[in-house]
Amino acid sequence: MSSFEVDVLVVGSGPVGATFARKLIDKGRNVLMIDSGAQLSANYGEHLKNSFLYQKNVDLFASVIRGHLHPLSVATSDAPVVTLDPSSFEYDPALWPGFVLNNQNPDQKERDNLGASATTYAVGGMATHWTAAVPRFHAELELTHDGQPYPLDLTALYPQAESLLRRATDVFQDSARHLLVKEVLHKAGFSTVTELPLAVSKRSDRAKSGAVHWSSTDTVLGALANPHHTPPKGRFTLLAEHQCTKLNLVPDGTGKQKVSGVEVRNLRNLDETVTITAKVFVVACGAILTPQLLFASGLRPEALGHYLTEQPMAFCQTVLKQSIMDKLLDWLKPYPDALDRVQKYKTKQEYMQANNIPGADPVFFPKGELEPNLWIAATPGQPWHCQIHRDAFSYGEVPPNIDRRLVVDLRWFGLSRPRKANRVEFSETGKDSFGMPQPTFHFALDKKEREEAGRMMAHMMKVASALGGFMPGSEPQFLTPGLPLHIAGTTRMGRTEADKATSVVDSHSQVWDVSNLFLGGNGLHPYGNAANPTLTSVATALKAVDQVEKILPTTGS
Predict the structure, then answer these.
(1) Known catalytic residue at 103
(2) Residue 486 among the catalytic residues
(3) Model confidence pLDDT, tens digit, residues 48-86
(4) Which of 306, 486, 508, 525 is catalytic?
(5) How far is 226 from 15, CA to CA, in rounded Å?
(6) Distance between CA 378 and CA 358 in Å, rounded?
(7) What is the pTM of this model?
C-alpha cells in the first residue's frame, strides 16, 4: 500500500501541470503529481527530440511521434479484407453485435470524427514531442469573440509564461537556411514573415553539434525535473504510471461540492492500494482526458465536452528552386556572417569537386546550419497561423534521396469558433484502453469556416510557389481533422456566474461550485484559436496558482 498526504495533487504532467507544481512548490507547498504514462527520460518530461540522433536527422523523429500518439476515437469498419487467405479465421459481425475490434468505437461516425485526434501517455505528455511553437493569441482574433473579451487579462501573465518555457526568437535567426527562406519570401512580397516564437534555447556546443535544446516539462519544472533534487522548501513527488480513475465528490457545507479524495491505480502493480489525501486537486491531462475524468467522476456540467474547437490544417512541403540555390550568395548578401560561412563552404566543396576528392557537397549550406523557423501571424483579416519551417510530424517525412537542407515545410492552421453542437461525448458503457469512458466526437466546420479554409489553402500555395516545387506525396492538402492536436473548449472558461451554463471553470480555472478543484490545459480556451495554444494555457495556469494559494492554509499552519 502507498499513502500520500500533500497540499496539492496534480493529475497530468505536461507543461501546464508542471506550471502548477513549480509555482506552488516555490511557495513552500507539498505537491504530488501523477501521470498514467511512463517516464521516458532521466529527468521528468524531457523533449525526446533533444537526442543527438534526432538533432542530426529530424525526419527519424516522425516514427517516435507516431509511436506515442494514441488515437482517441476510431470509427468502426467491418468491411471484409478480400485479399485475406480464405483459410483464415472469420466471423459474421451480424451474429456478434457489440463486439469491439481493435479498440474501434462503435458509436463514432466517420463523417464527424476528429479522426487524427490522439493523446500521449507519458511523463511530459505531448510536450515530449511537440513543435514547441509558443505565439501569443491575437488580441482582436483569439482573445475576443462576439465582442466579448477573454475571461482573464493575460498582459502580465504572458511574459511569465514565456520565461517558464524559455521562449526565444533568436536561436535560428542567424542560420543561412533560415535567412535564405526569409529573404526570398520578403522579396516575393510577404513582408510579415518573421521569426517563429519557440520554446527553445541555444546549446553551448551548438557550433560543434549543430544542436539546440527544446523545452518541455523538464524546462518548466527547472531543478525539480531531477528526481534526486530536494527543493529548499516544499516537497515534490512524481508518480509515473499512476492513473486517476475518479474524483470523489462530497458536499463542502457551503452549498458547493469538494473533492474528498481520488481513486488511483498503480498500472505497474494493480494489486497495490494507493491512497492520496490532498487539500486542493488540479486536473491538467489534456483537452479530452480532463473532461473524461470529470465525466467518470459524475461531475457533468452542461457545458462539459461542448463548444469544442479544432483547427483545419493545410500542409505541403517544397524543395527549394534551382534558381534560388544558383544565386545563394546573392540572396545572402544582406547577412555578412552567413554569407561568409556559405562562401567558405562553397569554395571548399568546389575545390574538392574539381580535384576529384570524394565527398564534395553540391548543396552549399554548411552541415551545421540550423533549419528555418519562420511564421506569419494570424490577424482578423487573415485568420490563420502560418509556420514555415522544418520539423518532424506523424506525416511529411522526406525521402532519403532528397537533401533535407532543401526542404521547407508549410503548415497553415485555421480557426473554428465555439458552437455547442461541436462536442466530445463520453460513453456510459464503452471503455477506452485505460478503462475510462470512451470519447466520441461530433465536429463540423460551418460555412464561413469552410470558406476561410479555402482562402487559407490559396494563401499557402502562393507562399509555397515563391520557394519551390512540391515534394511528391506532400503536395498541398488538408490533413485529417484532429491532426493539429489543438482541441480546445471542452472545459471552457467563463467570466462570471452568468456563464455557468456555457462554461466549466471560472476565470481562476476553478470548477464552478467545486471548492477545491482546478483545471488546466487547452480545453479552457473559450473562443477557438489559430495560433498554437500551449503558451496561453501556461499563462492561465499561472493565474490559477494565485487562487489555489488563497484556498490553502497559511504555510506552516
Answers:
(1) no
(2) yes
(3) 999 999 998 888 999 999 999 999 999 988 788 889 998
(4) 486
(5) 15
(6) 47
(7) 0.96
